[in-house]
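Students often ask why we bother encoding 3D structure as a string. The short answer is that it lets us treat folding as translation between two languages. Here is a chain of 215 residues written in the first language.
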Amino acid sequence: MRLYYSIAGENEHVQYSTDFTINTSSSPLPFFNQISADEPNEYLKTLTDQEINLSSSETDNLSFIQSGIGIATRLEFPNIKTVFDIQGQGTLLDASLKIAPAISSYNDALALRDTLSVFIVDQNNELTSQLISTDGSAAQAILNRDNQEFNDVYYELPLSGYLEGLLSVDQESSDALILLPSNYNSTVDRFVLNTDINIQGTTLELTYAIYDEDE
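And here it is in the second language, the structure alphabet:
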């Protein structure tokens, strides 16, 4: 930042300037911002604390992401172990979650990001780690626009490794996943996702192989 100022002389004002620099190599970085919403979405007025979860059944099957003020989409799989109800011995081969943005929620001015980051959070919605794919890379929900002319646009997230972990433990996990855009703490991106499984909203696709079915 450069500050310009002048000092009055005998016959004229003499112009000066002073530069202020920020040390970006220090840790933590010396930056601060605060973003607030004066009139939040009607559904979101109940989210007054980080530990509060709002079910999509209470929001007309919509889920929201708003950078800056800390609104995120939380994903839970409480019924995943019902796959064990399938007769015979089986194993999970693949899993993919597809989540469609609400059709009326995006346009050229409110563009969709090509990817969303995925993190694991605890029961208090504290970030514990970034979700890692089976190949060791950071997992991402990737936007698929192949059939955009038919309004068939969705984010696809591979989940086989994460769900295998849920299936392998005896007790129910209190962890969950959240979706966030990159640089969520320094941007104002917002997304509205359709969680309705009946109208091209959210779908969990599992590939489950049965290799020792009981007679």
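Translate back mentally: The helical segments are 160-168. Keep this in mind for the problem set.
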